[in-house]
Amino acid sequence: MTLYTPDEIVHLATAGAGWYPEAVIGHRLGRPPMEALPHEPTLDRPMGRSRISRDVMSITQRAMRTVLRDDLACELFTGPGMLLRGVDQEVFAQLKEWSWRLGAVKGLSRDEDGELPEVDWIPQQSAQPLVDQLRELACEFAGATSLPLSSLGIVQDNPSSAEAIAASREDLCIKAERAMRAWSGPLARVYQDAVMLRDGLAEPPEELRHARTRWGDPSRPSIVSRSDAVTKQISAIGWLAESPVVLEKLGYSQDEIDRLMADKKRAEAGTTLDRLAALTQPQGQAAQEQPDGGVPAPPTSKPDSTPSASPSALESTPPTPQPGSASQG
């Protein structure tokens, strides 16, 4: 037995004559390291209600009595009964001494008048009423506990459709969602207590103050319907595609999410390096590269823009006198 106190955890053992402390572990929590996980708590009943209610106990007891009646009926009423007519007392006394073991041979002789007694067989009793009663009790139990009838071993004549199965689990899924909301806080404190007990701390670490339990969807939708719902949400809110929460909604585990995010960062890093390599390339080399293969184009010569004089113009134009020369008369 273990005793939890605000300062210690005491492990008790017994040797038959009483209990004695076998080990004592001190802690600095200031409260017993225990958390309640109530079922459907309310303001009037903060500790919740038991799943084993009075209705459940009554139905269980009635079902056990029905099972006992069924076993008794199988032993007594499944064998056919025999009805004899025209048998005197001596023959009837002999019938009581017959051995009803399997394979025993039985026979009746004729009476003084040479007549045989009349023998009629009473049909065996059916256990179908008891089976029907068990089915009725199973329906009552399913209604009291919000369980599907198929979970209790009751097989319907016609197989249920997917919509019917989902509708039968609706109440149970609602109870599971309520339990998830009620248990998130206590379970977060359990995580903190475990680390504080291990490290001997009086206050939880800062990184554990926001630790929460990641619950799954109790309705367990198919992969197709889950993907379709996430796709519609991303189309309405585009930035959701960059959040790891989308991967959680798709059903990936935390290890798979970490691997996918690491692959994404590796791909983004490779793209960034390619861009940096393109920016650091020399501008002259980039200007000479052509789209069809990167071969530089040959230089082209520009035509001379100075106009050339014609021979007739040269003959009609007088020569320009040079300074210091005399002209002829």
Q: What's the arrangement of secondary structure elements?
A:
Elements: E1 2-4, E2 8-14, E3 19-26, H1 54-76, E4 81-85, H2 89-96, E5 118-122, H3 128-145, H4 162-168, H5 170-199, H6 223-236, H7 245-249, H8 254-279, H9 283-288, H10 311-316
Antiparallel strand pairs: 1-2, 2-3, 4-5
Helix pairs in contact: 1-3
Largest sheet: 3 strands, antiparallel
- How much helix is in the residues? 40-55%
Radius of gyration using CA atoms only: 49 Å
| Class from helix and strand fractions | mainly alpha
Provide the residue-averaged pLDDT: 78
Please work out how many helical segments DSSP would assign.
10
Q: What does this 3D model show about the protein?
A:
By secondary structure, the chain is mainly alpha-helical. The chain has 10 helices and 5 strands, in the order βββαβαβαααααααα. The strands form 2 sheets. Strands 1-2-3 form a 3-stranded antiparallel sheet, with no helix packed on it. A two-stranded antiparallel ribbon has the order 4-5. α1 (54-76) runs antiparallel to α3 (128-145). It is elongated. The protein starts with a strand and ends in a 13-residue tail after the last helix. Residues 300-318 and 320-329 have low confidence and may be disordered.
Keywords:
mainly alpha; three-stranded antiparallel sheet; elongated
Question: What's this model, at a glance?
Answer:
The protein is mostly helical and 329 residues long.
